Amino acid sequence: MSTPHYHYLQQYFSDLIASQQLVSGSKLPSEREIGEQFKLTRVTIRQALKNLEAEGLIYRQNRRGWFVSPAAVIYHPASHLSFNLYVTEQGFSPSTEKLAQQVEPANERIAQLMNIPIGNPVLYLHRRRYIDQRPVLIEKMYINQNLLPGIEEEDLTESLSQILKRKYQQEYRDMDLSFKSTSLPAHAANDLGIAAGQPGLQIERINYTGHKQVLEIDYEFWRHDAVTINIAIRD
Amino acid sequence: MSTPHYHYLQQYFSDLIASQQLVSGSKLPSEREIGEQFKLTRVTIRQALKNLEAEGLIYRQNRRGWFVSPAAVIYHPASHLSFNLYVTEQGFSPSTEKLAQQVEPANERIAQLMNIPIGNPVLYLHRRRYIDQRPVLIEKMYINQNLLPGIEEEDLTESLSQILKRKYQQEYRDMDLSFKSTSLPAHAANDLGIAAGQPGLQIERINYTGHKQVLEIDYEFWRHDAVTINIAIRD
DNA sequence: TTGGTCAACTGGTATATACCAGATAGTGTA
DNA sequence: TACACTATCTGGTATATACCAGTTGACCAA
Question: Phi first, then psi: what are they for B49, rounded to 5°?
């Protein structure tokens, strides 16, 4: 058993995808069908499929099947472009769904960053964002209401950066970013409609105004295969 | 079967680690021992262990066992600190091993970036870097010899940024970074002594001189649990 | 003390099988 | 036509078992 069976399977599907015989979004045969074709058990087949998933080539929809992953979108945080804009520019179709919106008391971390007393109200916003109808990103953000009075009356499925510009004459300026490759926490996996424990990318972003005040704290949970991050550092 | 068995196991070990009853680096019981204790088969146990691995809490060494992951090091590319420096500052012990060093003809991409003819010599350097004796990072770099004559005679397990400063009075300045959460390619997994197909973080970095010339192109392959990336964007 | 052999232990790969639970599409009824 | 039901398909979870292939440590011989 010099090269394991699942390795052949991986190569097989990898080649099909590379040669465009299986294109983005198309469905793979069911695990049982593959098993019949290759005379392998589901355990072995799932090993191959999970590896391909880790590579980012395929993904699953719960009890619907395995599908070829679309190309990853390139996220360029330093450009200050909105999600809608950079997704559109790269030839995909973005959409946003608001899952929750409420005014909440600030916890310790939020309060400290925003330089407000613990328990003071902040606007919590919970959104799901799609690329070509595929949910790829869960966002949980805490917005500094003091700097943006009346923000809660806006349509918060819209791009925040556009609301900022239009209503408050503000723009994103400085930001602190933190990236971690890890599995998705249960709540995020659930919101994305995928099994918990699957690989993901977590981003924490702190947005500042031009006056070094914290405008917004953003926790993002991405499908790991949906995004590549590019950053240019210029001193 | 509202909550699956592997979920209990995950929680069990997750709690042990959180409460420091299992500390960084310590070995978990063998899969068969766990199976006896919890009356579960290895398939179920491995599902739990793989999920914990995806979370970054544990990792495996081929046929040696499962171990608790050390805390991730924080990599702050924009700070221009060397690997040795930031790892040391965070209380870990770094080391570097040179796996290969050779002069190679530039391929198309390298040549274009460095603005030299295709096939012109570049210095290829292949290193493995450790944190507390654990291999965490494979580096494959292409160095622009034209800008750094005699670089190949240096001790290339040393920090490159220090060599640059000492011998060439150069410093890292601008850089382009690209991050992708994906599984490790076979060559990198092999160099890290882990099974292929495990989750990882790939970084591509292009370093420029103060005069916008490409000094070095760097491909990094990290264990995904070994690193968190922080970046401050200041306009 | 050194070095080699080997048994025991570890995770890695694989078969065969079973049942659960969500998704889907077709059927039949009101 | 509208809708509820249902058979079937899908992946999700799990048991039991087997053998392979590095790792390790104990033991023995030089």
Answer: -65, -40
Q: Which fold has domain A73-229?
A: Chorismate lyase (3.40.1410)
B1 Cβ within 7 A of any nucleic strand D atom:
yes
Instruction: Choose among A55, A182, A230: nearest Cβ to B177.
Output: A230
Residue A12: exposure state from Cβ atoms within 10 A (0-12, 13-18, ≥19): middle
Nucleotides on chain C that have an atom closer than 7 A to a protein CB are 9-18, 20-24
Give the distance from residue B106's alpha carbon to the nearest chain A alpha carbon, in angstroms: 24
Six-digit token string for B190: 């092999």
Q: Where are the domains of chain A?
A: 5-68, 73-229
Q: Which CATH architecture has domain A5-68?
A: Orthogonal Bundle (1.10)
Q: How far is B199 from chain A (nearest CA, A)?
A: 6
Burial class (CB in 10 A: 0-12, 13-18, 19+), A101: middle
**For residue A75, what pLDDT band results from cuts at 50, 70 and 90?**
very high
* Chain A residues inside the 8 Å CB shell of B201: 181
Answer whether any strand D atom is within 7 A of the Cβ of B2.
no
- CB under 8 Å to A207, separation ≥6 — which residues? A172, A173, A174, A175, A214, A215, A216, A217, A218
SS3 B109: helix
How far apart are alpha carbons A208 and B234 in whole angstroms? 10
Q: Is there a contact between A204 and A140 (Cβ–Cβ < 8 Å)? A: no
Residue B43 Cβ < 7 Å to strand D: yes
Per-residue pLDDT of B193-207, as tens digits, reads 887 777 899 999 999
| Pair A111, A120: CB distance under 8 Å | yes
Q: Give the tokens for residue B23.
A: 């500390």
What span, in angstroms and rounded, lies between the C-alpha atoms of B7 and A218?
28
Spatial distance between the Cα atoms of A92 and A81, rounded to a whole number of angstroms:
15
Provide φ and ψ at B80, rounded to 5°.
65, 20
Which pLDDT tens digit goes with each residue over A106-162? 999 999 999 999 999 999 999 999 999 899 999 999 999 999 888 888 888 888 888
Q: What residues of chain A have any CB closer than 8 angstroms to a CB in chain B?
A: 10, 43, 50-51, 54-56, 72, 77-78, 173-183, 196-201, 224-225, 228-235
